[in-house]
Amino acid sequence: MASLAAAERFGEYVMYEQPGEWVFAADPLGSVELDAGELRIDWSGRTTARAWTGSPARVIDAALAELALGGRKAYGWIGFEFCAYSLAATKYLNQRTPLAHLMIPRIEVRIDASGVRISGATPSEACDIHDLIAASQGVPLPVSTPVDVRIDPTDYAARVAGAVAEIRSGAYQKVILSRKVSLPFAVDVPATYRLGRANNTPARSFLLRLGGLEAAGFSPELVASVDDDRVVTTEPLAGTRAFGLGVEADDAARADLLADPKEIVEHAISVQTSFAEIAAVAVPGTSAVSDFMAVRERGSVQHLASTVRGTLAPDRTAWDALEVLFPSVTASGIPKRAGVDSVFRNDHDPRGLYSGAVVCVSPTGALEATLVLRAIYQTGEGAWLRAGAGIVGQSRPEREFEETCEKLGSVAPYVVEA
């Protein structure tokens, strides 16, 4: 997949890994872009732009329905600021704030246990794809460039202390504050993905170049999925310790995680919120929690994790479910409205794709949105990493800073300079 992305032959692309399957979707036939002031649809060689109102989820759903997709899926991303409309935070946006970018690919390359399947490509392109895949086998992993993740011009500890004071005053229960680590060099994003994926254990992974943004990441959890049976699933992860320091240290960290009241409270209120959100769009009585407070390893960290499911109500769509569950409770705050307001006030920069989602949308109505956290980002203005921590009343600023360093350890050691 990294070799296909690096080949520079297929234009813009989104690569997405699900359990047991990888898809490389490339060379868009068209796209749907949404920012705070405008909806743009590019299809059949024609671009239209118009103002929009209401729910961004329903606007995108309706825009995709306008297109003659011919059974094709759409792939792309939605940014954290997408949530501002459902959570009364639009005052923090300007007209050009990007909210979402989806594309409909001409070419799809799928790889699973049964082999390689290519659709939409010419015979010559299909031969090139097979050659690129064959040539990638056995190539040594790239060499990374060290990144100092402890540099912090954002005064993270002071921002955490301010949030703790707000929480203790009763303003809200929890907020996730993050910090950005700018990189002093241009990044080879496909090579970084390849090296990072070899050293991570994500729930999903992605690699994309779309609309001037390159990104690669190792997602720890789903924000939302709706399958063809209309089952809605989300996977809140909250509560973190380091992982990968050796069996004895990892076991000790796991035991500490399972016994820490702060981490247990943080996780329990996240699951409670996710359950209420799914119940709001599900058939009554179908919402349920499974694997409560399991420990799942995700690269350089281990988390407390649970799974929440329900059956989507007949009058609801997959986009309705995504809007209710987005942003992930583990990347925003509790209650969500107050938590998101705190994020906009206390985080140092607009988040964009960080704590947003990479999405795959099926013409059957199914949808999957994976949370973007352990990732690298690059535009023409530079490259950066970003990580956050869940802040509650018991939080200590120095510990929350260490948690961001632990999370950055899932990506920072694998950054490959261009």
UniProtKB/TrEMBL annotation:
Keywords: Lyase, Magnesium, Metal-binding. GO terms for molecular function: isochorismate pyruvate lyase activity. It is an enzyme of class 4 (lyase). Its EC number is 4.2.99.21. Its cofactor is Mg(2+). InterPro entries: ADC_synthase, Anth_synth_I-like, Chorismate_C, Salicylate_synthase. Residues 154-407 form the Chorismate-utilising enzyme C-terminal domain. It comes from the Bacteria. PANTHER family: AMINOBENZOATE/ANTHRANILATE SYNTHASE, ISOCHORISMATE SYNTHASE MENF. NCBIfam families: salicyl_syn. This is Salicylate synthase. It comes from Nocardia lasii. The lineage of its organism: Bacteria, Bacillati, Actinomycetota, Actinomycetes, Mycobacteriales.
